[in-house]
UniProtKB/TrEMBL annotation:
Membrane topology (UniProt): Multi-pass membrane protein
The protein, known as: Cytochrome c oxidase subunit 2
All copies of domain Cytochrome oxidase subunit II transmembrane region profile, residue ranges: 25-121
Function field: Subunits I and II form the functional core of the enzyme complex. Electrons originating in cytochrome c are transferred via heme a and Cu(A) to the binuclear center formed by heme a3 and Cu(B).
Cytochrome oxidase subunit II copper A binding domain boundaries: 125-255
Length: 374
């Protein structure tokens, strides 16, 4: 009778332990990986859940055996260590059975892991190819087959906004149900572009191309960030992808091409722009690309980003140095070269805005001046 009671107690201990651990697992499920929205991230998620389940089961079994051994073979009950354990059948065969069991578990996981790793490194033909360029502190997206370029900057929001530091002025637009290839690189330091729901992370390395891909299965907006500590503005590099149906994507692509063609034609036109026109356009360019560092007041951030208000470069009667630093950047600082990212009109407009705002009054520059300085 006592023997049966012990069996019941042991069974209850194991069952109770399993219930406790499973309850804890469900309680922490909200802290799991993001819900996948692509075929590749679904594979990664499934592999993660497989290893989690196998690890949890092993933990429960081992913990239950330890608890049982501590209870059933305690000293107060008169238990004595078996000095001949190694001569018994279990003692002789355990050295072979346990490694075989562990290897079998490892191989069951390794099979799925090998398939997932093969998927991550797949280089099959893509329907859309996007070059993702990291810079301090923004993302530039180039659609390699469609001659479309998007510069994606942090969107200025109040700290109380739920999307504070998580939204951008222009997201990357991608189609669902299409294979999308990403070519990852950087213009300055190491960056790391990734969005957990749709694509695994890979590092953006200056002078080198990394590659990854996705096949998005659900429409929606997906948010990520730069996962590499890339400098003082690291927190200001969110990555946002808007996934739309193939039909909507084609519609967006046609509209974007027309918009960029119009902007290019406007920038190349041999026209003398008025100060009012340049100031209006320049303010928009400044707000999108320069405000995060130099601030809306033009005072910058002392010790980090220089002020433009009253600065020598923005008040000099000769704008050559001002044009040079905007077009070519400044090595060893966070001042990027904007010559490859903005057209002549945009650069002329933003320089004119900087030279005639916050008390500055140094005159305007024209697109032809930028063209001559390139």
């Amino acid at each position: 009778m006592l023997h049966k009671s012990k069996k019941r107690l042991s069974a209850l201990s194991i069952t109770g332990g399993a219930w406790l651990f499973s309850g804890m697992a469900y309680a922490g499920y909200e802290y799991n990986l993001n819900t996948p929205a692509s075929t590749l991230t679904q594979e990664i998620f499934d592999l993660h859940m497989l290893t989690t389940v196998v690890g949890t089961i092993i933990m429960i079994i081992v913990t239950a055996l330890i608890v049982y051994a501590l209870f059933a073979f305690r000293q107060s009950k008169g238990a004595v260590a078996d000095q001949e354990f190694h001569n018994g059948w279990f003692g002789r065969w355990a050295w072979a059975l346990v490694p075989v069991l562990v290897l079998g578990i490892d191989l069951s996981i390794a099979s799925s892991a090998s398939h997932t790793l093969s998927s991550v490194e797949s280089h099959d033909k893509a329907d859309v190819t996007v070059k993702v360029i990291g810079s301090q502190w923004k993302w530039t997206y180039e659609y390699m087959d469609d001659d479309i370029k998007i510069v994606s900057n942090l969107k200025k929001l109040e700290p109380t906004d739920p999307l504070y530091l998580r939204d951008v002025d222009e997201p990357l637009v991608l189609p669902t149900d299409r294979r999308v290839r990403f070519l990852l690189t950087s213009t300055d330091v190491l960056h790391n572009w990734g969005i957990a729901e749709i694509v695994p992370k890979k590092i953006n390395i200056p002078g080198y191309i990394n590659e990854t891909w996705t096949h998005i299965t659900k429409e929606g907006t997906y948010r990520g960030q730069c996962y590499e500590n890339c400098g003082t503005g690291h927190a200001f590099m969110p990555a946002v992808v808007t996934a739309v149906s193939p039909a909507k994507y084609e519609e967006w692509k046609a509209g974007k091409k027309a918009q960029q063609a119009q902007a290019a034609a406007e920038a190349s036109a041999d026209k003398e722009w008025t100060q009012v026109e340049l100031m209006a356009k320049g303010q928009a360019v400044y707000t999108k690309n320069c405000l995060a560092c130099h601030q809306a007041t033009g005072l910058g951030l002392p010790g980090v980003f220089p002020a433009l208000a009253g600065s020598k470069i923005a008040t000099s009667t000769n704008p050559a140095d001002h044009i040079a630093i905007v077009v070519k950047g400044k090595a060893g600082t966070a001042m990027a070269a904007w010559g490859a990212q903005l057209n002549d009109l945009d650069i002329a407009a933003v320089i004119s805005y900087e030279r005639n705002s916050w008390g500055n009054a140094a005159g305007i520059v024209q697109p032809k001046d930028i063209k001559a300085a390139r």
